[in-house]
Amino acid sequence: MSNLKGHEIRLKSRPDGMPTEANFEYVEAAVAQPKDGEVLVRNVWMSVDPYMRGRMVDRASYVPPFQIGEALTGGTIGQVIAAGKGSHFAVGDYLNHMLGWREYAVVGPQAMPQKVDPKLAPVQSFLGALGMPGLTAYAGLFKIGGFKAGETVFVSAASGAVGSIVCQLAKAHGAYVVGSAGSDEKCQWLLKEAKIDKAINYKTEKDLNAAVGAAFPKGIDVYFENVGGKHLEAALNHMRQFGRIAVCGMIEQYNNTAPAPGPSNIIMTIPMSLRIEGFVVSNHFNLLPEFHKEMGTLVAQGKMKWRETVVEGLQNAPSAFLGLFKGENFGKALVKIGPDKAV
C-alpha cells in the first residue's frame, strides 16, 4: 500500500451566499501510511451537514474554518485496512471519525475515532439517528429545552436528521408534538411513521403563524429551532409562559450575504418569561451513555424510525451538500463512498 492514492474533495474557494459546485474540487492525492498509534481507514459512508456551511467562512468559531486547497472534514464511517504499532483498533474494525470528504484517511486520536458495531445497526446509522444528529436531538430536547413529560413541543425541519429524532423522543415521553416540513410526503411520514400529532407544510401554508397557532391552542412549551426566520417568529407568538426555545440551527440564514433582521416580536420573551438558548452538540458528549440507553430501548421497541437520502460517489458529495439548502434530502443526508466491506 506504499503507493496508495485516493480521491478527496477540497475547498477551492470561499462561497459568497449559496455555495456552488465551483467552490469545490475533486482531486487525487497520495495516501500516507499509518504511524504508531494511527490506522489507515477506507471510508465507506460520509455525512453532509448544514453546519459545514459555517466552516466555509474564514472566521473564528467553535470549530476552525475549512482552508482553501485542503480536504474538507466531517463525520464518516470507514473500515480499518492497516494499523500502526500501538493502535487501539484492528484491521476490519469499523470506525466513526471526522476525516470525511476523502476515500482514505489516516486516523489518529485528533480525528476522534469511535469503534462501531455493525451487528447493532447498519453502520451508516451511526452518522444519523444513533450518532451526532441523534445526540443533538437528545441534548437539545432534554438538556437545553428542559422538556418534561407531557408538554407541548414544536419542531421545525421536523423530517430532518435531527428534527425527526426530536419528534419521536418527545412522543415517547407523552408529548403533544407538531412538526413543520417542506413537502406533503415529509408531512405524511411524520404523521404515519414518527406518529406526531400534526404536521405543517410550511411551503404551501399561506400563513405559517396562523397554522402554528391553530396547531397549539394551548401554546408551546418547547420549540426546537432548526430554521429561524418566520418559524421563530411564529413560535414566539405562541409560546406558553416559561416556555423554552432550544436553538440548534437556523438553516434559513446560513447563506445570507447580509445580516437578517431579528424577530420583530422578540419582545415576547419578556411577558412570557421565555428562555432562548443556543447549543453545540460537542459540549454535551457526556450525555452519550444515557442517549444510547434511551435510543437502544426505543429502537428495540420499534418506536424509533428514520429516513436516509443516499448519494452515490465521493465526487457527488458537493451536490449532496448543496441539496441540504434546497430541501432535497429526506432525513439524514449521506454519501456512499465505497463498498460496505473494505477488507
What distinguishing features does this structure have?
15 strands, Quinone Oxidoreductase, Chain A, domain 1, seven-stranded mixed β-sheet, 343 residues, alpha/beta, 2 domains, 7 helices, Rossmann fold
Order of helices and strands: EEEEEEEHEHEHEHEHEEHEHE
Helix content: 10-25%
The CATH homologous superfamily of the largest domain is termed NAD(P)-binding Rossmann-like Domain
User: Class by helix and strand content?
Assistant: alpha/beta
Low-pLDDT regions: none
For the CA atoms, what is the radius of gyration? 21 Å
Total domain modules: 2
Number of β-strand runs: 15
Q: Per DSSP, what share of the residues sits in E-state strands of 2 or more residues?
A: 15-25%
In DSSP terms, counting alpha (H) and pi (I) runs of 4 or more, how many helices?
7
Termini gap: 13 Å
CATH topology of the largest domain: Rossmann fold
